[in-house]
Amino acid sequence: MITDYIIPGDKIELTLKSSEDRPNKDGIIARKVYRTRIYDITSEDEIKVNMPMDKDKLILLPIDSEYDLCFYTSNGLYQCYGRVTDRYKSKNIYVLVLELTTPLKKFQRREYYRLNCILNMKCRKMEDEEYAMVNDLNSVQFINTDLTLQNGTIVDISGGGARFISKVFFPTDSKILFKFSLPASKEPIEYEVVGRVLACEETNMKGVYQNHVQFIKIDTDQRESIIKYIFEEERRKRRRERGE
User: Fold this and answer.
1) Is 243 domain-assigned?
2) Buried-most residue among 17, 68, 203, 215 (CB within 10 A)?
3) pLDDT tier, 165 (very low <50, low <70, confident <90, very high otherwise)
4) Higher confidence at residue 240 or residue 20?
5) CA of 190: how far to CAs of 23, 77, 180, 181, 212, in Å?
């Protein structure tokens, strides 16, 4: 039963699926996330949620739009995909009806929680021989970075990987050197990791590509510091929303 995993009142995030994304004039796709709560569970594949709001303004999500749904429950984090099928007002409550189009699955928040962001980065494709050598090392600090690196922009990041925009097409499963920095209290922290390309697709702007990368060679301390940065940014965002 779906109620074994989620119940009314649980927090839910709706993230617009990538096929619905639209890049801005710079080719950057900032995926919109809407936060609300479960209002009711009507069947195994249908739920109702409170209409999302932004600064006291209702967000009327379009009928048939599709979202990546993330549920925050007492038993952990669950995810599935869903589609908006209806919206209406009932007893002064604005309701959004969602059809769950895939089964619920559980995943770990610490590594895979995504933060929407805009961060400069550089990268280049690694040759098989270079990756084989690096794979035998305990870290990626010995990678030869004298070769030209391509510019890009990270638009979301997690402890497990990132999504970035660039003008370079990277074939699926190719290995890339991935360099970026994150703000810190004293000075930015530099990261140099190896990623595997999960998908690369052209955006609506010709010659501009959206890349999904999984970090496959990264120090444990680096991964933990990325996760720490994400959580701190989320806390800052919640404080701003509360006007603190």
Assistant:
1) no
2) 215
3) very high
4) 240
5) 27, 30, 6, 4, 20
Using CA atoms, how far apart are residues 62 and 220, in angstroms rounded to an integer? 41
Mean pLDDT, residues 229-244 taken together: 78
Is residue 101 located within the same domain as residue 119? Answer: no
Contact 197, 213 (CB under 8 A): yes
Please report the pLDDT score of residue 57 as a whole number: 86
The last residue of a domain, from among 107, 133, 163:
107
- Pairwise CA distance, residues 104 & 92, whole Å: 30
User: Residues 44, 50, 52, CA angle at the centre, nearest 5°?
Assistant: 120
Q: How many residues does the chain have?
A: 244
**C-beta separation of 60 from 185 below 8 A:** no
CA pair distance 196, 198, nearest whole angstrom? 6
Give yes or no: residues 229 and 127 share one domain.
yes
Distance CA 172, CA 210 (A): 12
Q: Chain-wide mean pLDDT for the chain?
A: 83
User: Which of these three, 92, 107, 122, is where a domain ends?
Assistant: 107
In 3D space, the residue among 104, 63, 70 whose CA is nearest the CA of residue 85 turns out to be: 63
Tokens 């610490």 label which residue?
110
Q: Between residues 29 and 208, which one has the greater pLDDT?
A: 208
Is the backbone of residue 162 left (phi > 0), alpha (psi -120 to 50) or beta?
beta
